[in-house]
């Protein structure tokens, strides 16, 4: 059997590419899972989209006389 080209090896008669030695990269599935997790978290918890704060009704001061 012929020797596979540089960067490849033979497995059960098939030529396979050697694994890369570079740093770990995030796979497409990992990125998709992270995006889905952030989306689900935003649906359940929200990004600070609380109900708008009601302005407090003005309270009459103590010095105001009550119509006598």
Q: How would you spell out the order of helices and strands? A: EEH
Helix count from the secondary structure assignment:
1
Helical proportion, percent range: 25-40%
What is the topology, as strand order, of the major beta sheet? 1-2
Strands, total number: 2
Largest sheet: 2 strands, antiparallel
Oligomer: single chain
Low-pLDDT parts are none
Average the pLDDT over all residues and give the rounded result: 79
Shape: rod-shaped
Please state roughly what percent of the residues sit in beta strands, choosing from under 5%, 5-15%, 15-25%, 25-35%, 35-45% or over 45%.
Answer: 5-15%
Structural class: alpha+beta
Distance between the termini: 112 Å
Radius of gyration: 33 Å
Task: Characterise this structure.
- It is a single chain.
- The chain has 68 residues and is α+β, with helices and mostly antiparallel strands.
- It is 25% helix and 12% strand.
- It is built from one helix and two strands.
- It has a two-stranded antiparallel ribbon.
- A hairpin with a 2-residue loop joins strand 1 (8-11) and strand 2.
- The longest helix has 17 residues, at 28-44.
- The termini are far apart.
- The model has no long low-confidence stretch (mean pLDDT 79).
């Amino acid at each position: 059997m012929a020797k596979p080209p540089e960067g490849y090896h033979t497995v059960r008669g098939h030529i396979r590419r050697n694994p890369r030695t570079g740093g770990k990269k995030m796979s497409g599935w990992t990125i998709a899972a992270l995006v889905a997790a952030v989306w689900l978290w935003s649906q359940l918890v929200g990004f600070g989209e609380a109900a708008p704060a009601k302005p407090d009704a003005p309270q009459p001061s103590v010095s105001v006389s009550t119509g006598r």
